[in-house]
Design brief:
Helix content is 10%, strand content 40%. It is built from one helix and 13 strands. The longest helix has 18 residues, at 2-19. The chain folds into two domains: 2-34, no CATH class; 45-175, Jelly Rolls, CATH 2.60.120. By secondary structure, it is mainly beta. Strands 3, 4, 5, 6, 7, 8, 9, 10, 11, 12 and 13 form an eleven-stranded antiparallel β-sheet that branches. The chain has a two-stranded antiparallel sheet with strand order 1-2. The two termini are 45 Å apart.
């Protein structure tokens, strides 16, 4: 009986240790070994603060606390913009949480578009399949994810078109590391 229990414990230990191994190299049979191994993807996030952001005019009111902004106003075309984001965030994924878009009114369901850089280049969010008019995120998205380009110059902007924003809340974070090596 003791021997059976010892064998079961040994098998469990071997099985559990096998679950935590990572393949380091692959022998292709031609003498070449591949050593490029990526570790697990990390979900380490940091706040993308709204300090130093501005609206285009007084038609849009913004109240920012840390990484959350509340936007209010009836606008034809208006935006919330900064040119002060660190360029070190190039290629990082930004995540916007927008929990209460349903409280606002958006013409033709166009919540907002996102642009970057001084040339106001349109950003196509990673998790939005179809942009309205090839620009605007539909108002039913509660989470929007997009990557900053590798030539990001520090300017990020949210543009609203024919919208009645009633306390639209946006919380912004970014992923610090995509993968570990």
């Amino acid at each position: 009986m003791k021997r059976t229990v010892m064998i079961i414990i040994a098998l469990c230990a071997v099985w559990f240790s096998g679950c935590n191994t990572t393949q380091v190299g692959v022998n292709t049979g031609s003498g070449n070994q591949q050593q490029n191994v990526e570790g697990p993807t990390t979900n380490v996030t940091a706040n993308l603060n709204f300090r130093g952001w501005d609206t285009w005019s007084n038609a849009l009111e913004a109240t920012a606390i840390g990484n959350t902004v509340t936007l209010t106003g009836n606008v034809d075309v208006n935006g919330y913009v900064t040119e002060q984001i660190s360029r070190s965030l190039r290629n990082r994924t930004v995540v916007l949480e927008i929990p209460n878009a349903a409280a606002s009114s958006f013409s033709r369901d166009r919540m907002m578009k996102i642009t970057v850089n001084k040339d106001d280049r349109l950003v196509h969010p990673d998790n939005v399949e179809d942009l309205i008019e090839r620009e605007y995120i539909p108002s039913d998205y509660k989470v929007v994810e997009f990557s900053l380009p590798n030539d990001f110059d520090g300017k990020l902007q949210f543009v609203f078109y024919e919208a009645d924003l009633r306390g639209l809340q946006i919380t912004a974070t970014y992923r610090q590391q995509e993968t570990t090596r």
